[in-house]
Amino acid sequence: MARLADYFVVVGYDLDKRGGSEGQGHILQRFPEKDWEDNPFPQGIELFCQPNGWQLVPERERPSFFVSVLTDINSERHYCACFTFWEGLDNPQLQKAEASEVDEDEVPGLVQPAQVFAPKSLVLVSRLDHTEVFRNCLGLIYTVHVDSLSVPLETVIGNLLTCVIPVAGGSQRTITLGAGDRQVIQTPINDSLPVSGSSVAHLFRQLGIVNVLYLFCAALTEHKILFLSSSYQRLTDACRALLAIMFPLKYSFTYVPILPGKLLEVLSTPTPFIIGVNSFFRSETQELLDVIIADLDGGTVTIPECVHVSLLPDPLLQQTQTALSMVLDPELEIADHAFPPSSTQPSTLKVQDKEIRAVFLWLFGQLFHGYRWCLHIIRIHPEPVIRFHKAAFLGQRALTEDDFLMKVLDGMAFAGFISERGPPYRPTDLFDDLIANQVERIRQEECSPHKVMNHIKELAEQLFKNENPYPAVAMHKVQRPAESPGHNDPKNLAIFPPLDDVTVQLFIDHAAAKLKTAPPVVKAELRGMVPSGPPLGDIVDRHGHVLANSARRLEVVRNCITYIFDNKMLEAKKLMPAVLRALKGRAARVCLTQELNQHVLQNRAVLDDQQFDYIVRMMNCTLQDCSHMDEHGIAAVLLPLVTAFCRKLGAGITQFAYSCVQEHMVWTNMQFWEAMFYSDVQNHIRALYLEVDEGEQPTPSHGQQESGPAAGGQELLGALELASEQSRLWPTLNKEQQSERVQKEESTVFSQAIHYANRMSYLLLPLDTSKNRLLNRSGIGDVESVSNSYVTNSIAGSMAESYDTESGFEDAESSDVANSVVRFINRFVDKVCNESGVTNEHLKALHTMIPDIVQMHIETLDAVHRESKRLPPIQKPKLLRPILLAGEELVMDGMRVHLISDGREEATGAMGGPPLLPAEGAIFLTTYRLIFKGTPNDPLVGEQVVTRSFPIASLTKEKRISVSLSMDQFIQEGLQLRSCTFQLLKIAFDEEVASDLAEVFRKHMHKLRYPQHVQGTFAFTMGQSGKTLVEHKTKDKNQSIKTLSKNLVKSAKRTIGRQYVTRKKYSPPTWENRSSQQSELDEDEISVSEELDQGSLTLSSTIRSSDRQTMSNVVERACCRDYQRLGLGTLSNSLTRSKNEPFRISTVNRMYTVCKSYPGLLIVPQSIPDSTIQRISRCYRQNRFPVVCWRNSRTKAVLLRSAGLHAKGVVGFFKSPNAPSAGPSQADSTSLEQEKYMQAIISSMPSYSEPSGRNTLSGFTSTHMSISDSSDKLRQPKIGALMKQVMGGKEDIPGTFSRGALGQRARVISLSQPRVSGKARNPPGGKWGSIRGSGRLSAYNPEVGNRLSSKESPQPNGGPSEALFLRQQRAYLYIIGDKTQLKGGKQDSFQQWEVVPIEVCDVRQVKNSFKKLMKACVPSSATSESSMTFHRCLEESEWMCLLHRVLQVSVLVVELLDTGSSVMVSLEDGWDVTTQVVSLVQLLSDPYYRTLDGFRLLVEKEWLSFGHRFSHRGAQTLASQSSGFTPVFLQFLDCVHQIHLQFPMEFEFSQYYLKFLAYHYVSNRFRTFLLDSDYERIELGVLYEEKGERKNPQVCKSVWDYIDRLNKKTPIFFNYMFSPEDEEVLRPYSFISNLKVWDFYTEETLSEGPSYDWELVQRGRQERLAEEVPDKPDTTTPKSQRHIVWPCYDSRSRVVPDAITKLLQDLQSLEAELGLPPEKWKDTWDKIKANQRAEAKLENRPSFNSSLLMSSNLSHQRRSQGVYLPESGVGSSINLAMDYEASTTSTPVAGRPSTSTLYSQFQSTESENRSFEGILYKKGALLKPWKPRWFVLDKTKHQLRYYETRKDKDCTGVIELAEVESVIPATPTMGAPKHIEEKAFFDLKTTKRVYNFCAQDRPNAQLWMDSIQSCLSDA
After folding, report:
1. What span, in angstroms and rounded, lies between the C-alpha atoms of 1411 and 666?
2. Are 1118 and 1138 in contact (CB under 8 A)?
């Protein structure tokens, strides 16, 4: 029984305390005045009466009613029903009298201001929630007052306060307050079910299904929820509804359905809440960032961005939504029916309310079914203590991943649920019944919504019945006010009178006395055993959530274990991989634990080493995939096993399995240990009571210590049932028995705690206590990772106290390991003992015991560790030592690692062949390289050695990975290291490598990769570990060079313009501020350099006589030899100017003052003084002004290079010089000087003569009028086409080429055709890739150019008919410039130069393209996606497009130079693309650069001297680390490789030479490619030392010396097919279809690593041979000479050498056998060559170039796409053509064409396959004479073509063989050539006409006929 109302309060407006705008309320009267003992009076009621604040209003408002809820300190809820009405009073501003004295009848005679109304509230405080009853009672009191009924108010209130009603039980009580009223109160049958009226239905109507579900999930997962509404009653109802649908969970956080405005700051509390606030305060709720706001009036729910609400798991969410919509909107389902039923109205609100609640009840039944199977009962007496095993529950339900359930189980509500519903002996309710008896039904009906609906209706009925046990009764009789009083009706304004408290108190006292005498009401509480419902296990299988494990897999596991224990190790080894795969599934793991259990006898199982290793491996694999929660209880079952399996290590020393399975996170998870502990305690307590009851002692076997149903369903049922039974009996026992039981239970828990302290120390103390491995990683010593979102708040709290400060420093100290383990165990013991009620004495005893246990265990472990070290390690291959270079030192000794396969499939055996990877070995870090050396894991290839290495300087990316090795148990940490030598090391550290060691390895690697300064690189530090790095401090032999370089640097620093003064090291301005920086160089800066003392500018004056000798070094370094060879001036010339030479060598930059990144000596026009050069240089970026770098010996055209112009210089440069200007400005003068410079270059060309002034018409004398010869005409369009491609389509031409300009140019066509010098009259020699028969432009498809500029092709046929920019006259100088730079500026039509704008690729493009190329060639992991295939990735990298662009521009330049125009390449900063283009042009144009010496000179001159920034682009130091690796030089080498492939006979060096350079330019083994310019090299003193000092002959500092030395020993760099033609100009095809992927990117040799460190490879091979030799004596069995060659393992060139290398090797070995002195290979080769020539001369075979042909039918073609020539076997593929000996007299024999013709005709894509060719006479058409023509029979194109002459490129006609009908011998006709026999004539009949032919003789004619016939028959 309970009081209906505890307190009655009258609250009014407080006139005294009225301050400012805010009024206050105060309590006028309250009854009873004294607090009830069991229920103190709640504070702050006056705030809740007027939540919006107390205010006076000008008009009377209607009475209002709502219920607030206050929660007291004991979390009891008090319901405060507030009934508020308004009373008039005079405006308090004027009348200060007290409100109580104001009598309305005496109206003062003052002028009356507006009357105001003050609120007054009648409040009823109760602990029961009967809203309607309260509304009626308070309404009645108000009615009595207003209508002045005869009943005294005191009586009504007295009756109200003394009314007592039952709390629950389904009774009904009629009450009356003595004013002629009557009400019936029905109490719910079961008060554990919430009462909701129709509030839930209203909530769904206001917000909708989805919104309410969001709120529901948010409330369960502990988010903050705020309701807004302008109605207070609605707020209360909504909050009540939300709580009602959460049943059976109870909300335990802040719950305030109506929050007063004054308390709004409560909303910023950090804890979750459900709060209602009036919409009046909406604006103040806007800035709450983490609160979910539900607006009841607007029907919206707003979830802030930062809040993530986890929703119900998927099928459930869907089912719940469906069920709810069927309840709320039954019409939805039949909306589409053709004949809808007449009416399907939803139920009434009250019933609908219960139906919705039933849906949620059903939902919780689904969510929580089986929860009782996961309860651990750890104490029964004196109070049951119950714990929930969350991991097992989630694991059984297969919902471990589910965010929502996880959070719910971790929440406070669920903790309350367990403590309330956990006890096995208590009253049960609807939810218990649902869980126990209806789970099966829920599961079966899940998929049929209608059955679900029926079930829900049944549940709803029960809920409704609970709330309305007597639905028929509704006899309410309550009076209401007669009519609602008019708002301003002055008659009804009586004020609520003060009540007589004595009268009321009397009522109360009287009732209290009556209660005392009445007999106590005894309510029988029905307690009983709570049923558990069906166990979880079957459910999971029905859902099929569990990983399917076929019986076959379990069989494999069982067999393997049997083999292990039967000692059949080989069998076990075979099965092992399959077992480890099977153990991914849960069933197999359970099976493993059961099998292992059977082999344990008396808690022990002693194994031998091999068995032990396998068992441990299987255990590790089983544990590896378990999460750290151990949801399937696998770790729990293994726990007893790891302490059972062991091996004997020595006398009295045993190693248990636990020392080998410690690596798993589960052991550091506090919750796992708690669950395990509780599970064991439960088993023991059950045993305890079974023994008490039945006098027998069942021994729980280890297998049944698992809590989940997987092991022992029966046993668990027993525990809860037992507990229930014991709880029932407890009251019947006497005191002694009770205390005895309590004590027994407590001892049981205590003994288990000791047992667990031991177990935990086993699994937490590492075998080697110096390695604090597990603790470091898992964070036993680190709170954050333990309370890893899974740990409930309370645990996290208990861990939060930090550890003592002393630990946490010396990680490796064993004491520290012990400390952290002790702390972890202490924390565990505290928690479990407090929860399970262990006495304090016992707890103290435990705390003293634990350190001893740990210490003892550490001592045992030390012995085990010592012994286990002595054990021969099981099958770990020995670490192989790598061979090191001279001067290379180990930085870190080998660490055992596994090399894992990456995306390249060759080594894994995926493409056939044995799996060489994964391999086990060690990684070594040396000063030069990273080396892996080891053996494959696969036993079939176990004896091979696998090596992978790359120079540390080429490391481009390092990334940590974690790897799980298939055979191994752990997830291991690893590294993925990528190198720009196209190598990838993917390694996983072995478990024996400590993680801190791996970290040290990374740090060292970074230090070596990015040294502080370039002197830290291997090229400098090589072999000088003891010495300091800075070299030039040491005493120097070659003093003079050093002084020179010092002088140079000093004076350079002195004379550098102010621009560089502040910077010590040269760093070019960044992209963004480059233009701005240059524009700041104003005039006085320019004047600085002009003031240099002119006298000091001769070279000799700077160098002291003692240093003169070193000048030769400078001269040589500046590539003067090359300049002299090209006739570009000699040094003597440059110092004493001789006028007849057009160029001179200028020393203007000898101090590196004009341009730091240029060499000291430069070629400039003779007529330009040095002072001009200094001025001109400022117009160019980085001061890199145009200088000559090559001259064509035939046409005397020159090639110049420079950087792009500065932004401001472009327009000035192209300004017409005659433009009027306001005085000679600076810009004008430089622009004039630039023009003069250009003119000087043009004048130097012999084809240009300058009779009179510049740029005037009169200047063009009649010599220029004659038209040049036909060869020029022929070449003209070709260049046009080329340009068109390079520049893009016609729309692309910048403003320079406007129509107007063209018009002017067109007028002077006839004037300016330049005269070609006599020498050049003959068609220029050269190899051009065109195809004769197909129009002049066939070789170059203009669309490619347009594609480059992403424009449409201007014409379908691609002919040059409207090449806008093509002058019919040829310019003398073409400037190749960057499109973006050449905006604006008009070109003068008479200037003799022309700008070709092209698009260049940015270095960023190169960088990104290279990254993608690396990923394509060396992918980090295998992928099956079609989008990631090699060719797709290669295409996406666009590397080939970049090569295509560079080659295309280069070919254009070659073509221009060859036709006699000079070219200036002026792109970007003049050190990337410019260098590439200029070098390629020289390589293509000048055969000298295609020799070994020439190529070296080319690279030294163009790349090193002209300042390509090798260090910066290669990111060689710390400073350039951020810029990343940009392989500009590699791109150039790739282009050379492409040309080499197309012209294999033109290069003296082999492809290997290019790969060698590509490898070593990034390897930092040599100093050649370090630093960014000559200036920097001089400053460091490395430029001239190569000649001067040779202290250590072993260490080559220059790559060139190394190559020279190696070339003397072995022909590896030599190309046997080298057979150059004189003055040959190469024109390679540059289409992407003609380019091949360089095999440097894709090949690898795992047997020996990269072959570019030659001495390493040689030493490795010798060692391997030495190892193989001892096997020789066994001569009885013939040893096979055969050897399997694996493409990615063996070096193919060594195992299968080409014929000539093989012959040379045989010669050498023969010489050695005969004891002759060995002859150098080059001498041998030259001799053979000489003999060859002599023989050819004797035989006088003039028909074709004599050569060493190894096969008679080798189609001799100079141009090839690959070293092996087509149509021949490997053996015959080496074509050693010697120099071409031409014979002018003979006519060529058919079938033996000259090499040059063939060479220039061969092309891979549309290859002109000349099957047969020679001269035939052909009869012309009617009346035309016979003419000799050169005929070519082409099988591939199926045509017979004829040319005017043999040399001709364009064919005169074509006969399509498809049209030929017959070939027949014929007779001579009229006009046939004389002296030719009759039989030499034949006819060719086609569909159109008959051709008459005549050959030289009869056999020749027969040959032709046969050949044509065979072509026809082939077709």
Report:
1. 40
2. no
Q: Count other C-beta atoms under 10 Å from residue 1770's C-beta.
A: 10
pLDDT digits (tens, 9 = 90+) for 374-390: 888 888 887 888 888 88
Contact partners, residue 1595, CB within 8 Å, separation at least 6: 886, 887, 1022, 1023
Q: Which helix (H) or strand (E) covers residue 64, if one does?
A: strand 64-71
Of 28, 1752, 1649, 1754, which is closest to residue 899 (Cα–Cα)?
1649
Contact call for residues 1083 and 1226 (beta carbons, < 8 A): yes
Kindly state the average pLDDT of the residues 1835-1862.
84
pLDDT tens profile 1493-1517:
999 999 999 999 999 999 899 888 8
Q: How many CB atoms lie within 10 A of CB 158?
A: 24
Q: 645-650 and 605-607: which strand pairing?
A: parallel
Q: How open is the CA angle 1582-1584-1588, to the nearest 5 degrees? A: 110
The closest alpha carbon to 834, from 753, 732, 920, 724, belongs to: 753
Q: What is the spatial distance between Cα 1291 and Cα 1384, in angstroms, rounded to a whole number?
A: 15
**Peptide bond before residue 382 is cis, with ω within 30 degrees of 0:** yes
Mean pLDDT score, 668-684: 85
Task: Give the tens place of pLDDT for each residue, 180-210.
Answer: 788 888 888 887 888 888 899 999 999 999 9
CB 1834 within 8 A of CB 1801: no
- H or E element in which residue 1708 lies: helix 1699-1714
Instruction: Name residues whose C-beta falls within 8 Å of residue 977's C-beta, 6 or more positions apart in sequence.
Output: 930, 955, 957, 958, 984, 985, 986, 987, 1005
The three-class DSSP label of residue 81 is: strand
Contact 459, 358 (CB under 8 A): yes
Contacts of 535 (CB under 8 A, 6+ apart): 370, 373, 709, 713
In 3D space, the residue among 1236, 1240, 1232 whose CA is nearest the CA of residue 1213 turns out to be 1232
What CA–CA distance (Å, rounded) separates 397 from 921? 44
How open is the CA angle 744-750-752, to the nearest 5 degrees?
Answer: 105
The separation between CA 338 and the C-alpha centre of its own chain, rounded to angstroms, equals: 56
**CA separation for the pair 289, 278 (Å, rounded):** 19
Burial of 127 (0-12, 13-18, 19+ CB in 10 A): middle
| Rounded-to-integer distance, Cα 1589 and Cα 1599, Å | 16
Q: What residues are paired with 30 via a beta bridge?
A: 9
> If DSSP codes are grouped into helix, strand and coil, which group holds residue 702?
helix
* Of 616, 715, 598, 703, residue with least CA distance to 659: 616
The size of the chain, in residues, is 1915
| 1507-1544 residues labelled b (16+ CB within 10 A) or e (exposed) | bbbbbbbbbbbebbeeebbbbbbbbbbbbbbbbbbbbb
- Tens digits of per-residue pLDDT, 441-488? 888 887 888 888 888 888 888 888 888 887 766 556 777 777 654 444
> Which amino acid, one-letter code, is at 1423?
T
- pTM, two decimals, is 0.52
Whose structure tokens read 């209660």?
A: 515
E strand or H helix at 1658: helix 1654-1668
At what angle are helices 1439-1458 and 1473-1485 packed, to 10 degrees?
A: 50
pLDDT band at 1798 (very low <50, low <70, confident <90, very high): very low
Cα 1388 from Cα 1232, distance rounded (Å): 13
Question: What's the rounded Cα separation, in Å, for the pair 1480 and 1475?
Answer: 8
Tokens at 1415, concatenated: 């990923």
Give, for 560, the enclosing helix (H) or strand (E): helix 551-565
Torsion angles phi and psi, residue 935, rounded to 5:
-125, 150
